[in-house]
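Run log // design_07
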């Protein structure tokens, strides 16, 4: 199935796809990009149990060491440098 993106970046999702995904006017969607694919997913509200699990789940995370902090900072800088290169090439 084909669709065209408008000059404003808007896209019409074909009716048959909207029906299969049960998308209705006003629904919120999450949009992501992974492995060369644009992914659109209907956003569903979290249940109270899911929220509780998210809030209590962080207690088991390991401490952030100076080496890990430096690695995270390096990865962030690499992503930013890549964005700057792509922006300059455009």
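design_07 sequence
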């Amino acid at each position: 199935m084909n669709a065209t993106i408008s000059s404003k970046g808007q896209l019409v999702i074909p009716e048959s796809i909207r029906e299969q995904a049960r998308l209705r006017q006003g629904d919120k969607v999450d949009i992501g990009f992974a492995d060369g694919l644009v992914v659109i997913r209907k956003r569903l509200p979290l249940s109270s149990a899911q929220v509780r699990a998210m809030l209590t789940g962080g207690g088991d995370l390991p401490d952030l060491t100076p080496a890990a902090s430096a690695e995270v900072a390096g990865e962030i800088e690499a992503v930013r440098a890549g964005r700057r290169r792509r922006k300059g090439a455009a």
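Residues 13 and 19 are 10 Å apart (CA to CA).
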